[in-house]
Amino acid sequence: MTQENKLPVHVLSGFLGSGKTTLLKRLLAGPDWHDVALLVNEFGEVGIDHLLLNEVAPDIVLLPGGCLCCAIRGELKQALLDLYERRQRGQLPPFSKIILETTGLADPAPILATLLHDRQLQYHFSQGMLVTLVDSEHGWQQAEQQPEWLAQVTAADWLLLSKTDRVSPAALPALRAYLQQLNPLAQIACSTELADGDLSLFETPFNPQAPQRFRRWLGKVAGPLKAQAPLSDASAEHPATTTCVITFEQQINWSAFAVWLSMLLHCHGQSILRIKGLLNVAESATPVVIHGVQHSLHPPIHLSAWPETRRQSQLVFIMRGISSACLHNAFTHFLQPYTTETDAIGASTL
């Protein structure tokens, strides 16, 4: 199945109480949900989120706006395949996208790994956007105490601030700056900026025909990004998270780079929370985009043309417990004309 014909699976994440169900109720009010399947992944034996969205049948229900809603507490893979098979048999409406609302305790990385690496799912589904809601009222406390919060924030393509009416407007800039420090690759907005029924967040990313997304990203990382001191006493005990940007002019050998990156993630995948890169590889006249969360990497994407920037490679790493200097050192070793074994030594010194 071609990439265009695959069903995108978008993920709505956020810690407990961040307002995911409230947001979905507003988005369900729009007219464009008739072709959406909504999966509500609830924690524990008894869940109520899907009941808040609508009074539902035991498994699957068609919501008033035409959206298909399914509460799952088991295997994500099987739930997706069941939905697809019932859609193909005509037992369900022909939805064109899926939105998965995760439990507030979920680490997105295993979900993304399932979507990216399972062969059955790869054939029918593609990964869409990952949107994370951040509770403005309790965000600092959760940053300090909840490791799941960090995983949800750093994996996101979009960060939405919820409950902004419960905090002083003067407190929001510091939180936004801290979130941008943790995840400079994400777009940040307030949930109140979304009109009822606005589905613009759930656009499929990495469309090779839409390089404007990469122009926005390159604009964010064009300047040097350095690890900053905590922006609030509330974040003083938060695990050390740094951003490392590597920019280089020379073309690279794709196969050699793939080996280096694979070994890096094999050794330190849990510490590399997010990676995104635009690469100038010798085997391609156009740039290659890579993107991943922890151990999981998307298939590389070939853009149709270079964005309006210099023809150079840029890599952005969001890391926990690894210094930027160590990563730069490892990559410098890789760029030198060493053997594969020597490159491996460079990566293993992290």
Explain what this protein looks like in three dimensions.
This protein folds into 2 domains: 3-193, P-loop containing nucleotide triphosphate hydrolases (Rossmann fold); 226-348, Hypothetical Protein Yjia, Chain: A,domain 2, CATH 3.30.1220.10. The protein contains 12 helices and 14 strands. It has helices at residues 20-27, 49-53, 76-88, 108-117, 119-124, 139-145, 147-154, 172-182, 212-221, 254-268, 324-335, 340-348; strands spanning 7-14, 36-41, 60-62, 68-72, 97-101, 125-135, 158-162, 187-190, 241-248, 272-279, 288-293, 296-297, 301-302, 313-320. It has an 8-stranded mixed beta sheet with strand order 3-4-2-5-1-6-7-8. Strands 9, 10, 11, 12, 13 and 14 form a 6-stranded antiparallel beta sheet that branches. The protein is an alpha/beta fold and 350 residues long.
